[in-house]
Specification:
The protein is of the alpha+beta class. It has three helices and nine strands, in the order H-H-E-E-E-H-E-E-E-E-E-E. The longest helix is centred in the N-terminal third of the chain and has 28 residues. It starts with 7 loop residues before the first helix and ends in a 7-residue tail after the last strand.
Length: about 200
Protein backbone atom coordinates (compact mmCIF):
# COMPACT_ATOMS: atom_id res chain seq x y z
CA UNK A 1 0.00 0.00 0.00
CA UNK A 2 1.42 3.37 -1.11
CA UNK A 3 1.60 6.32 1.28
CA UNK A 4 2.48 8.72 -1.53
CA UNK A 5 -1.08 9.38 -2.64
CA UNK A 6 -1.97 13.05 -2.73
CA UNK A 7 -5.40 14.39 -1.90
CA UNK A 8 -5.78 16.84 -4.82
CA UNK A 9 -9.07 18.22 -3.50
CA UNK A 10 -7.46 19.16 -0.21
CA UNK A 11 -4.49 20.72 -2.02
CA UNK A 12 -6.82 22.87 -4.20
CA UNK A 13 -8.71 23.98 -1.11
CA UNK A 14 -5.49 24.99 0.69
CA UNK A 15 -4.15 26.85 -2.36
CA UNK A 16 -7.46 28.66 -2.86
CA UNK A 17 -7.75 29.52 0.85
CA UNK A 18 -4.18 30.82 0.97
CA UNK A 19 -4.77 32.90 -2.16
CA UNK A 20 -7.93 34.45 -0.71
CA UNK A 21 -6.25 35.25 2.61
CA UNK A 22 -3.26 36.72 0.74
CA UNK A 23 -5.51 38.88 -1.46
CA UNK A 24 -7.44 40.17 1.56
CA UNK A 25 -4.17 40.92 3.35
CA UNK A 26 -2.83 42.74 0.28
CA UNK A 27 -6.06 44.76 0.20
CA UNK A 28 -5.61 45.77 3.84
CA UNK A 29 -2.10 46.99 3.01
CA UNK A 30 -2.91 48.58 -0.37
CA UNK A 31 -6.02 50.59 0.61
CA UNK A 32 -4.31 52.83 3.21
CA UNK A 33 -1.25 53.13 0.99
CA UNK A 34 -3.27 54.23 -2.05
CA UNK A 35 -5.50 56.45 0.10
CA UNK A 36 -2.41 58.32 1.29
CA UNK A 37 -1.87 59.47 -2.32
CA UNK A 38 -5.31 61.08 -2.47
CA UNK A 39 -5.61 64.70 -1.30
CA UNK A 40 -7.27 65.15 2.06
CA UNK A 41 -10.65 66.87 2.42
CA UNK A 42 -8.81 69.86 3.88
CA UNK A 43 -6.51 70.02 0.85
CA UNK A 44 -9.47 69.71 -1.53
CA UNK A 45 -11.29 72.50 0.30
CA UNK A 46 -8.22 74.75 0.26
CA UNK A 47 -8.42 75.00 -3.53
CA UNK A 48 -12.18 74.90 -3.82
CA UNK A 49 -14.08 78.05 -4.76
CA UNK A 50 -15.55 79.98 -1.84
CA UNK A 51 -18.56 82.23 -1.52
CA UNK A 52 -18.37 85.77 -0.17
CA UNK A 53 -21.57 87.40 1.08
CA UNK A 54 -21.38 91.14 0.38
CA UNK A 55 -24.94 92.00 1.44
CA UNK A 56 -23.70 93.87 4.53
CA UNK A 57 -20.54 95.34 2.99
CA UNK A 58 -20.81 99.11 3.36
CA UNK A 59 -19.31 101.67 1.00
CA UNK A 60 -15.65 102.29 1.78
CA UNK A 61 -15.31 99.04 3.73
CA UNK A 62 -13.35 95.85 3.08
CA UNK A 63 -14.28 92.21 3.69
CA UNK A 64 -11.51 89.58 3.95
CA UNK A 65 -12.10 85.90 3.09
CA UNK A 66 -9.65 83.03 2.63
CA UNK A 67 -9.20 81.18 -0.66
CA UNK A 68 -6.34 78.74 -1.37
CA UNK A 69 -4.81 79.75 1.99
CA UNK A 70 -4.54 83.37 0.80
CA UNK A 71 -6.43 86.45 1.99
CA UNK A 72 -8.86 87.76 -0.61
CA UNK A 73 -10.17 91.28 -0.18
CA UNK A 74 -13.58 92.47 -1.32
CA UNK A 75 -13.96 96.27 -1.23
CA UNK A 76 -17.08 98.33 -1.93
CA UNK A 77 -15.87 101.53 -3.62
CA UNK A 78 -17.69 104.86 -3.73
CA UNK A 79 -18.39 106.91 -6.86
CA UNK A 80 -15.67 109.34 -5.76
CA UNK A 81 -13.15 106.52 -5.36
CA UNK A 82 -13.96 105.29 -8.86
CA UNK A 83 -13.61 108.81 -10.28
CA UNK A 84 -10.24 109.25 -8.51
CA UNK A 85 -8.78 106.14 -10.20
CA UNK A 86 -8.04 108.01 -13.42
CA UNK A 87 -6.04 110.69 -11.60
CA UNK A 88 -3.48 108.04 -10.56
CA UNK A 89 -2.70 106.80 -14.09
CA UNK A 90 0.47 108.87 -14.65
CA UNK A 91 1.96 107.57 -11.37
CA UNK A 92 1.32 103.85 -12.01
CA UNK A 93 3.55 101.15 -13.53
CA UNK A 94 0.70 99.37 -15.33
CA UNK A 95 -2.39 101.64 -15.33
CA UNK A 96 -4.10 99.73 -18.17
CA UNK A 97 -3.51 96.32 -16.52
CA UNK A 98 -1.57 95.08 -19.56
CA UNK A 99 0.13 92.27 -17.61
CA UNK A 100 -2.37 89.51 -18.39
CA UNK A 101 -1.13 87.30 -15.53
CA UNK A 102 -2.50 89.73 -12.93
CA UNK A 103 -6.21 89.46 -13.69
CA UNK A 104 -8.80 87.63 -15.82
CA UNK A 105 -9.74 89.28 -19.11
CA UNK A 106 -13.00 90.66 -17.69
CA UNK A 107 -11.01 92.60 -15.05
CA UNK A 108 -8.63 94.24 -17.54
CA UNK A 109 -9.94 97.77 -17.07
CA UNK A 110 -9.30 100.82 -14.96
CA UNK A 111 -11.60 99.44 -12.24
CA UNK A 112 -10.19 95.88 -12.53
CA UNK A 113 -13.52 94.35 -11.60
CA UNK A 114 -16.71 92.80 -12.97
CA UNK A 115 -18.82 95.45 -11.22
CA UNK A 116 -17.17 98.88 -10.92
CA UNK A 117 -18.12 99.41 -7.27
CA UNK A 118 -16.87 95.98 -6.06
CA UNK A 119 -13.14 95.20 -6.10
CA UNK A 120 -11.86 91.64 -5.51
CA UNK A 121 -8.10 91.20 -4.92
CA UNK A 122 -5.68 88.63 -3.54
CA UNK A 123 -4.24 90.44 -0.52
CA UNK A 124 -0.58 89.53 -1.10
CA UNK A 125 2.06 92.01 -2.24
CA UNK A 126 3.67 91.06 -5.53
CA UNK A 127 7.12 91.96 -4.17
CA UNK A 128 7.90 89.43 -1.43
CA UNK A 129 4.50 88.15 -0.36
CA UNK A 130 3.68 90.41 2.60
CA UNK A 131 0.06 91.41 3.15
CA UNK A 132 -0.51 95.14 2.52
CA UNK A 133 -2.82 97.16 4.75
CA UNK A 134 -6.04 98.76 3.56
CA UNK A 135 -5.56 102.55 3.65
CA UNK A 136 -8.73 104.22 2.40
CA UNK A 137 -7.85 107.50 4.11
CA UNK A 138 -7.16 110.52 1.87
CA UNK A 139 -3.82 112.39 2.14
CA UNK A 140 -2.54 110.90 5.42
CA UNK A 141 0.71 112.41 6.71
CA UNK A 142 2.70 109.17 6.25
CA UNK A 143 1.63 108.59 2.63
CA UNK A 144 1.53 112.12 1.26
CA UNK A 145 -1.07 114.64 0.19
CA UNK A 146 -1.51 113.01 -3.23
CA UNK A 147 -2.65 109.69 -1.67
CA UNK A 148 -6.27 108.99 -2.68
CA UNK A 149 -6.67 105.71 -0.83
CA UNK A 150 -5.47 102.22 -1.59
CA UNK A 151 -3.20 99.57 -0.13
CA UNK A 152 0.20 100.08 1.53
CA UNK A 153 2.69 97.27 2.14
CA UNK A 154 4.49 97.96 5.44
CA UNK A 155 7.30 95.47 4.66
CA UNK A 156 8.98 97.49 1.86
CA UNK A 157 6.63 100.46 1.29
CA UNK A 158 4.99 99.33 -1.95
CA UNK A 159 1.80 101.25 -2.73
CA UNK A 160 -1.27 100.24 -4.72
CA UNK A 161 -4.30 102.32 -5.64
CA UNK A 162 -7.96 101.44 -5.01
CA UNK A 163 -7.91 99.14 -8.06
CA UNK A 164 -4.82 97.27 -6.80
CA UNK A 165 -2.57 98.90 -9.42
CA UNK A 166 1.03 99.40 -8.32
CA UNK A 167 2.68 102.82 -8.18
CA UNK A 168 6.00 103.59 -9.86
CA UNK A 169 9.16 103.80 -7.73
CA UNK A 170 8.24 101.00 -5.29
CA UNK A 171 9.68 97.47 -5.00
CA UNK A 172 6.49 95.63 -6.08
CA UNK A 173 6.87 94.81 -9.79
CA UNK A 174 3.22 94.22 -10.70
CA UNK A 175 -0.36 95.01 -9.76
CA UNK A 176 -2.14 92.98 -7.08
CA UNK A 177 -3.77 89.84 -8.47
CA UNK A 178 -7.50 89.77 -9.25
CA UNK A 179 -8.65 86.17 -8.67
CA UNK A 180 -11.22 84.49 -10.92
CA UNK A 181 -14.68 85.27 -9.61
CA UNK A 182 -18.29 85.82 -10.60
CA UNK A 183 -21.59 86.85 -9.07
CA UNK A 184 -23.90 83.98 -8.12
CA UNK A 185 -26.44 86.59 -6.98
CA UNK A 186 -26.26 90.38 -6.55
CA UNK A 187 -24.88 89.84 -3.03
CA UNK A 188 -22.89 86.61 -3.41
CA UNK A 189 -19.52 86.31 -5.15
CA UNK A 190 -18.00 82.93 -5.94
CA UNK A 191 -14.21 83.33 -5.74
CA UNK A 192 -12.11 80.74 -7.56
CA UNK A 193 -14.14 80.29 -10.75
CA UNK A 194 -14.85 82.55 -13.71
CA UNK A 195 -18.42 81.33 -14.16
CA UNK A 196 -20.71 82.84 -16.75
CA UNK A 197 -19.84 86.17 -18.36
CA UNK A 198 -21.22 89.01 -16.27
Amino acid sequence: MSTDTVDKGKRRFLVASTSVVGAVGAGFVAVPFLSSWMPSERAKNAGAPIEADISRLEEGRMLTVEWQSKPVWVVRRSEKTLADLETNNASLKDPASDNIDQQPEYAKSQQRSRKPEILVLVGICTHLGCSPTFRPDIAPADLGEDWLGGFFCPCHSSKFDMAGRVFQGVPAPTNLVVPPHYYVTDNTILIGEDGEAA
